[in-house]
Amino acid sequence: xxxxxxxxxxxxxxxxxxxxxxxxxxxxxxxxxxxxxxxxxxxxxxxxxxxxxxxxxxxxxxxxxxxxxxxxxxxxxxxxxxxxxxxxxxxxxxxxxxxxxxxxxxxxxxxxxxxxxxxxxxxxxxxxxxxxxxxxxxxxxxxxxxxxxxxxxxxxxxxxxxxxxxxxxxxxxxxxxxxxxxxxxxxxxxxxxxxxxxxxxxxxxxxxxxxxxxxxxxxxxxxxxxxxxxxxxxxxxxxxxxxxxxxxxxxxxxxxxxxxxxxxxxxxxxxxxxxxxxxxxxxxxxxxxxxxxxxxxxxxxxxxxxxxxxxxxxxxxxxxxxxxxxxxxxxxxx
Length: 334
Description:
By secondary structure, the protein is α/β, with parallel strands linked by helices. It has a single domain (about 1-330), classed as Alpha-Beta Barrel (TIM Barrel). The protein has 14 helices and ten strands. It has an eight-stranded parallel β-sheet. Strands 9-10 form a two-stranded antiparallel sheet. Strand 3, helix 4 (about 105-110) and strand 4 (about 115-120) form a beta-alpha-beta unit. Helix 2 packs parallel to helix 3 (about 80-90) and helix 13 crosses helix 14 (about 320-330).
């Protein structure tokens, strides 16, 4: 980490900070507010050795963090090996999962710096209705197994919140408090992709204010609750703008299941660096340099985007003060 910090400093923090590796775009849940499970076409996935090589390249490039993403990451059977290799290289590692296969791969998952498990409610019937599968008992059993048998780092419960499950949050916060987990809430929002259309699930500003007020009150009662104030303001104000542009193209390595690197972000493709090219070759190519140059001016498809990972790297690049406040929220110092 220190070595990478020195590399970033030498390049004035003008290199990618983080890799978001979409291990697969398949998913074994059918959440009503997400469309990714509807796109279940066969996909090319990078062989293990290519992913390991990408990790070596990212470490040499000065990247701090490696996130396993999806789809549902644990549908890629090589993910446990990727977690172990990324941890060995010293990346800060994280992975969101729906938890259905968590017990099977628990020994690898606990090596993550932050394991994120998606649970919106502890009401089994409501969970099944929202997620399209009666999987809550399986997920809770896996968490109990980890808590009772394995040494782990941070476990965070991710709750996608709308007005339907808002009043279910106190029970979820109590669940987390008793087990030493964090609870992170994020308002349900549209995920823009050029490959398929999604239903409009976003809330109005007055509804968002109601959610924020509820979660802030919950945070006062439960120390486990994380609430990112600046991110909420960013979300409420409509996402990326020319005053707060997305820096995904320059500061987030968006890696596809096949090992290619997609620009400007994981959700829209103007260019892909081929899987066999190194990160250095990709980022020094004329096509990518031009996309990075254009990105602060924003494309039409950027307007309204509120995705968390691009926001995180953009906050660090756009506003040091915002980055500091986000770190304070993350570390629960306020």
